[in-house]
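Try this one yourself first.
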C-alpha cells in the first residue's frame, strides 16, 4: 500500500468515527461538553496538520545539505554547453 493509500485509509477511519459520533445515533447520548468539543474537531485537526506540515518544511529547509561537488559539476556542464553553443554560432 502506498503512503497516499495509508493516509486515505486513516482519514476515512477517523472521518467515519467522527461522523458516527457527531450524528448521534439513537442509542448514544453524548454529554454537552463532549458534543461541543466533537463538532469543531475536524477544523482543529486540519489546523494541527497545517502547523505540522509548515514545521516539517521549515525544518527540512533549515537542515538542507549543500552539495558543492554537484554544484561544481553542474557549473562545468553549463560552461561546456555555452562553449558548444558559441561554437555553433549562438550569441548570449
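Now uncover the answer:
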Amino acid at each position: 500500500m502506498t503512503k497516499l493509500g495509508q493516509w486515505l485509509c486513516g482519514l476515512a477511519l477517523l472521518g467515519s468515527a467522527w461522523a458516527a459520533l457527531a450524528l448521534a445515533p439513537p442509542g448514544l447520548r453524548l454529554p454537552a461538553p463532549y458534543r461541543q468539543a466533537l463538532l469543531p474537531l475536524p477544523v482543529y485537526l486540519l489546523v494541527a496538520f497545517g502547523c505540522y506540515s509548515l514545521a516539517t518544511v521549515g525544518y527540512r529547509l533549515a537542515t538542507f545539505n549543500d552539495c558543492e561537488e554537484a554544484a561544481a559539476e553542474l557549473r562545468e556542464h553549463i560552461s561546456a554547453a555555452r562553449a558548444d553553443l558559441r561554437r555553433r554560432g549562438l550569441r548570449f
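Discussion: The longest helix spans residues 41-62. The radius of gyration is 27 Å.
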